[in-house]
Design goal:
- The protein is of the alpha+beta class.
- Among the domains are: about 180 residues, Uridine Diphospho-n-acetylenolpyruvylglucosamine Reductase, domain 3 (2-Layer Sandwich); about 90 residues, no CATH class.
- The chain contains 16 helices and 18 strands.
- The protein has an eight-stranded antiparallel sheet with strand order 14-9-13-12-16-17-15-18, sandwiched between helices.
- It is globular.
Length: about 450
């Protein structure tokens, strides 16, 4: 765990500002950051911002249940700092090395999102390095309220968060799980609606809610309840030979230590570790536990994409070219059965992750309070996550399946996050992500366009 005090934080900010000043006027400004959880290629910047020393927790205040956190702090380090106080961020994304700043300027989601919304909704204050090279402090109201509201889903096109003050909520030491099976998506939708509206299922409180659709007639919701468990109660461990997602089909009930629950998806990158043979018990035994992590798999995938190993093998074997379809999309709850049916017919990839979400109560009464990712208050959405490849043949590099997903979402009132490849034309992109408003805010905080625009980042892959 990386810790930082206020003096260390100020020293790190000073280094950051000095690195900005050292970049030639008019040159592109990017982070000097080796790791990423993005799945879209990009051009490397020739000079980068020095973010060293901005990766820790400054302080945790158990009385106010808040934390002061640096922008490059990973959720792994953040959780390690808050759990000893019996506290946790309102939303902890699934993967250990996602940073708090990344989850706020991008998008993060997890099982608490049906009641706590998205990570940026529990941010009280942000200290941001703008494209103009200035440090500003943005809050929901006040001088920089426009930057505060537009920052989510801007992916560094408006600036980079150096410090965030976030709300925390109390947690016990364990999580009790119930896995509910459904024969079709319509049944699952009814259950989600009941849980979201009541916060419970059959009289028991639900604190976390997500699920997996293995096939059209084999779907699961996992209901998580925070509990204080005694030391003698056995807890499951899915960092060893057992694989978490496989347990959904085998068990009705489960008990996990709280931190094991938080990182239940990270060990096997949901189910994507199977691509490296880790679902084979013999290979799993040989793969060191410390390397069963999403960031390790991500680096391996990045190497494969750089050298095109799989594509070369497919060509050698005479197999059709494959398209990478790696996306997370938000679909209105009542449209989920239609989306899954369409998805099976036009993409054909299972399992898929299901994570219900609603904007937090603090957004009630505000029309689309986060303009760059305009979800409607009071509407329940389901994040559908699908990550893999599809045999397409000639033209796979043009993204036909990804383009089809984008077109369907436009018709169904859905949205997709922008951490992966996007293919929208400029007019459509601006309509979906409120481009005119984003440009207005960008002119204020990045008047010389030192930072790459959101469209150039997401679609042109610059």
């Amino acid at each position: 765990m990386t810790s930082a005090g206020w003096s260390q934080h100020q020293a790190a900010v000073d280094r950051l500002l000095a690195s900005y000043a050292a970049i030639a006027p008019g040159a592109e400004v990017r982070l000097a950051k080796r790791t990423s959880n993005l799945f879209r290629p990009r051009h490397e910047a020739r000079a980068g911002l020095d973010v060293s020393g901005l990766n820790g927790v400054i302080e945790v205040d158990p009385t106010t249940q808040t934390a002061e956190v640096q922008g490059m702090c990973t959720y792994e380090d953040l959780v390690a700092a808050t759990v000893p106080h019996g506290l946790i961020p309102f939303v902890v994304p699934q993967l250990r090395t996602i940073t708090l700043g990344g989850a706020v300027t991008g998008l993060g989601i997890e099982s608490t999102s049906f009641r706590n919304g998205l990570p940026h909704e529990s941010v009280l204050e942000m200290e941001i390095l703008t494209g103009a090279g200035e440090i500003v402090t943005a809050r929901r109201t006040g001088e920089h309220a426009d930057l505060f509201a537009t920052f989510p889903n801007s992916y560094g096109s408006l600036g980079y968060a150096t410090r965030l003050r976030i709300e925390l909520e109390p947690v016990p030491n364990a999580v009790r799980l119930r896995h509910l099976r459904f024969d079709d998506a319509a049944q699952l939708v009814k259950a989600v609606d009941t849980i979201v509206e009541s916060g419970s299922w059959e009289g028991e409180r639900v604190d976390g809610l997500d699920g997996v659709a293995f096939s059209p007639d084999d779907l699961y919701l996992t209901l998580a309840t925070w509990v204080e468990a005694g030391p003698q109660e056995p807890r499951s461990d899915y960092t060893g030979s057992e694989i978490y997602y496989a347990s959904l089909q085998r068990r009705r009930h489960d008990l996990l230590a709280f931190e094991d629950y938080i990182w239940r998806w990270d060990t096997d990158w949901f189910w994507c570790s199977g691509a490296f043979g880790l679902h084979n018990p013999r290979i799993r035994r040989l793969w060191p536990r410390r390397y069963r992590r999403s960031d390790v798999y991500h680096r391996l995938v990045a190497l494969e994409r750089r050298y095109g190993v799989v594509d070369r093998l497919d060509r050698f074997r005479g197999r059709p070219q494959r398209e990478r379809v790696i996306q997370d999309v938000e679909v209105p709850l009542d449209r989920l059965p239609d989306f899954l049916a369409w998805f099976d017919l036009n993409v054909g990839m299972r399992p898929v992750w299901l994570c219900p979400l609603r904007l937090r109560n603090g957004s009630a009464g505000r029309t689309r309070p986060w303009p760059t990712y305009p979800l409607d208050p009071g509407v329940t959405y389901v994040n559908v996550g699908f990550w893999g490849t599809v045999a397409v043949g000639d033209g796979a590099e043009q993204g036909p399946r990804n383009r089809a997903v984008e077109a369907y979402l436009q018709e169904s009132g859905g949205h997709k996050s922008l951490y992966s490849e996007a293919f929208y034309d400029r007019a459509t992109f601006d309509r979906l992500y409120d481009g005119p408003h984003l440009e207005t805010v960008k002119r204020r905080y990045d008047p010389r366009h030192r930072l790459t625009s959101l469209y150039d980042k997401a679609v042109r892959r610059q």
